[in-house]
Amino acid sequence: MEAASLPAALELAAGGGAGLSPEKRAVLGASLLLLQRDYRFERVWFWGCIQGVRGAYYIAEGLGPDRAAPRSRLYSLNCVEWSLLPPATQEMVAQAERLKGRFQGDPSFEYEYTEINAEDAERLFEDGEKPMIKEEARLVATVEQIDREVGIIPRGAFVKTPLGSVCENRNFEGLSLTEAKKLSSYFHFTEPVNLKNKTLLEKADLDPSTDFLDSLEHDIPQGKCS
């Protein structure tokens, strides 16, 4: 959600039965604008909230001129004071995937090896030291994983310029009813993987200004249906 229109957007989202209190919405709307000024971001998005046992993490993302470039992520425990999160690494993601249960709401909380499969812990930590994973690292990895899986944009909402940067398409007015029903009309808003493996013949029908990301049409659902 855009910081400037956040209070109104959160009020609409609250109609679904889940949302922030009026006080939190007001404080968040003001603090994100200050965050944008202090860090000199071009745009600030409110990513969402991750509820823990003893508190919640409020996540924001700061963007520069290139909307597809890696974003700066910040979190707050009170919607006023913000801390910058480090970039996610493959090691963080691998460790976080082996953790179960709810967040505690304390970024300094440490998960011990007893909460990880012994074989996995031995493989991940070969130095022989007792493996400890801080909740802040788990938070970084979780936000990264969620962005990879469900960070989705409609086709045409963003365009790639001849110089390679990505920006909002000011002429985009939404998908037609027919296009909105197609999975190929939606893209993962992350670094493309499948697109790089396409042949030249497959790329011939693509528009480089709009089709520069991986579409959802070839996604394979994971997990089991009961």
Automatic annotation (TrEMBL):
Keywords: Cell projection, Cilium, Cilium biogenesis/degradation, Cytoplasm, Cytoskeleton, Flagellum. It comes from the Eukaryota. Its main location: other. InterPro entries: RSP9. GO terms for biological process: axoneme assembly; cilium movement involved in cell motility; motile cilium assembly. One of its GO terms (cellular component) is axoneme. It is found in: Cell projection, Kinocilium; Cytoplasm, Cytoskeleton, Flagellum axoneme. Belongs to the flagellar radial spoke RSP9 family. This is Radial spoke head protein 9 homolog. It comes from Steatornis caripensis.
